[in-house]
Amino acid sequence: MQTYIYPPLSEWKNLIQRPVQKAEDLQNIVLTVFEDIKNEKDKALIDYTKKFDKADLTNIRVTADEIETAIASVSEELKQAIQIAASNIEKFHASQKESKNIIETTEGVNCWREARPIENIGIYIPGGSAPLFSTVLMLGIPAQLAGCKSITLCTPPDKNGNINPAILYTANLIGIKNIYKVGGIQAIGAMTFGTETIEKADKIFGPGNQYVTAAKQVAQNFGVAIDMPAGPSEVLVIADTTSNPEFVAADLLSQAEHGSDSQVILLTTDENILQQTLSQIENQLTQLPRKSIASQALLQSRGIILNSIEECIAFSNLYAPEHLILAIENAENYTDSITSAGSVFLGNFSCESAGDYASGTNHTLPTNGYSRNYSGVSLDSFVKKITFQKVTEKGIQNIGPSIEKMAEAEELFAHKNAVSVRLKSLNSQNNTIIKDEKF
Fold first, then answer.
1. Which of 93, 323, 352, 404 is catalytic?
2. DSSP track, 22-86
3. Which residue out of 257, 322, 352, 404 is catalytically annotated?
4. What are 184-237's pLDDT values in tens digits?
5. What does the pLDDT look like over 419-433, one tens digit per residue?
6. Residue 423 maps to which CATH number?
7. Are residues 274 and 398 in the same domain?
8. Which of 124, 152, 315, 397 is 20 to 30 A from 264 (CA-CA)?
9. What is the total count of domains within the chain?
């Protein structure tokens, strides 16, 4: 890790920069694959799966027999762990349901909002060296709670055409039935356009490499929504003299092992904590199976000493991390000062891994500084909100004149007339009643 001692505010802009990725003409690659999928559908998926994943498939849909075999091969200990995580995730996301709340804004004018599920959801789950079955829980559970009609899950097969058993077990546990052996750009293309086998999605969720990320961005040009912009994983830890350097090092490495393009940041007010943490990183790194990946990530990571916890919070808000750990005394006292972070972990025992797996919060979070303007995935990500209003005769009489004046000022006279004809009708009725009463 690169270290910086009391850098002045003028240097912070450079210190918050993420690693620059190698530029590739990904959009042209994505558009070529998308065009093939649009024209050749399942055939293109099978061809690209053979080309990129070295799997020779005749059927891209996971069968019931494959699911049963996978379930049998997952250990009972892992099944129990997944079930505990699923229960906590379901509890937290179920609490996000909103009830209808009718507001009378003016006498005779009632307004409210109701949620409707996004009907067709596409979920992408990376395979390879880190098959993220935990992401199946994070995306599938809120989709089910929201009432989404159709959930499609795509994940790349290994060279033998098999899907990681834990992914299949987890998908089956939460009721996802439409599972396909498709990865990379071709998976996003399939969910963007639909094929003979895979249903077109209204919104696509899930992490992936730079090709998947580029494909999701291009998918938006074809009328498909995505969860959020994505980038390499990251964590920022703020530590003081009460922190445990062994814990801090473990938290930093837990994100560094995600990928060589990940970045981890340590902010502290104490030079001894920085040095002890660096020593712990060196010791723990040797024990990691993915140490070569973590080592590459550490080359572009930083340990920074600042003057106060308040300065550390200010730096963090500027960096806008995906994950923020406050390994400090009385961490709860600083929560109001946090303005930009995907998910925050308070205290020495709130490790980021808890949020990744089993605490209940969602681990699909904005990276690359996007926590300044994006939220992590929640139940709201799987619904759309529709507003309703009911205006009575009294209501249109109360707000009608204001509408007429505003519409006229904007020179939208048809808008004005839509109110005027109603007010005229009511005035006519009232005049008729008055005349009838005279007789």
1. 323
2. PP--HHHHHHHHHHHHHHHTHHHHHHHHHHHH----S--BPPHHHHHHHHHHS-HHHHHHHHHHH
3. 322
4. 999 999 999 999 999 999 999 999 888 999 999 999 999 999 999 888 999 999
5. 999 999 998 887 766
6. 1.20.5.1300
7. no
8. 124
9. 3
Here the CATH number for the domain that contains residue 55 is: 3.40.50.1980
258 flagged as catalytic: no
User: Do residues 83 and 125 both lie within one domain?
Assistant: yes
Task: Identify whether residues 84 and 212 lie together within a single domain.
Answer: yes
Dig out the tokens for 340 from the structure.
Answer: 């930009």
- The candidate with the shortest Cα–Cα distance to 265, out of 288, 232, 219, 289, is 232
- Confidence category of residue 438, pLDDT binned at 50, 70, 90: low
* Per-residue pLDDT tens digits for 267-321: 999 999 999 999 999 999 999 999 999 999 999 999 999 999 999 999 999 999 9
Q: Contact, 236 vs 265, CB < 8 A?
A: yes
Q: Are residues 130 and 244 in the same domain?
A: no
Domain coverage including residue 185: 26-101+117-228
Which of helix, strand or coil describes residue 225? strand
Q: Could you tell me if 266 and 349 lie in one domain?
A: yes
Give CA–CA dist 332/337, Å, rounded. 10
Whether 434 has a pLDDT exceeding 80, the answer reads no
- If asked whether residues 125 and 138 sit together in one domain, one would say yes
Amino acid at 423: L
Position 369 in a domain = no
pLDDT of residue 428: 86
Average pLDDT, the chain: 95
